[in-house]
Specification:
CATH topology: Jelly Rolls
Strand content: 35-45%
Largest sheet: 5 strands, antiparallel
InterPro entries: FlhE (IPR009420)
Structural class: mainly beta
Keywords: Cell projection, Cilium, Flagellum
Number of strands: 9
CATH superfamily: Galactose-binding domain-like
Helix content: 10-25%
Number of helices: 1
Number of domains: 1
CATH architecture: Sandwich
Organism: Salinicola corii
Distance between the termini: 43 Å
Protein name: Flagellar protein FlhE
Radius of gyration: 22 Å
Shape: elongated
């Protein structure tokens, strides 16, 4: 091996020192995944407030980085309105699958809820079944 091609010791030490904080930040990251309970949304002018989804105690003190969600309906539901809420903060969801950084910096220990509204007019059925849902919280300690 040529001496010209090997890295000087000072570069190896410097790159290790610079990389160390990033390695610690990466190691402190985690993901919490939970299924969402199925629920029936009836036609109404008022939103249905879903069941509270409580994160596990193991992420107490953690901070949210990103939130992802997915759910499906048993009927075509172009007029279905949905919100993802944590405590009093609610985010309107444009699609049944997506991700957001809007919860970034908030406590990962707060309860979440999905809210749905199925407007009384504009569709053939008076109810929609929400199922197959999942909530994914990326967090850091």
């Amino acid at each position: 091996m040529s001496l010209r091609r090997s890295l000087p010791l000072w570069r190896v030490v410097l790159s290790t020192i610079v990389a160390w904080p990033f390695a610690l930040a990466w190691a402190a990251q985690g993901t919490w995944v939970t299924p969402l309970p199925s629920q029936t949304v009836v036609a109404s002018e008022r939103p249905l407030v879903g069941v509270a989804i409580q994160p596990p105690p193991s992420i107490a003190g953690a901070e949210i980085v990103r939130v992802r969600w997915t759910f499906r309906t048993d009927v075509p539901a172009p007029t279905l309105k949905a919100w993802l809420c944590q405590d009093e903060f609610c985010l309107p969801l444009a699609r049944p699958r997506g991700e957001t950084l809007q919860f970034s910096g908030r406590s990962a220990a707060g309860r979440f809820r999905l809210r749905f509204q199925w407007p009384a007019a504009g569709h053939d059925t008076d109810r929609a079944m929400i199922s197959g849902g999942q909530l994914i919280i990326d967090y850091r300690q």
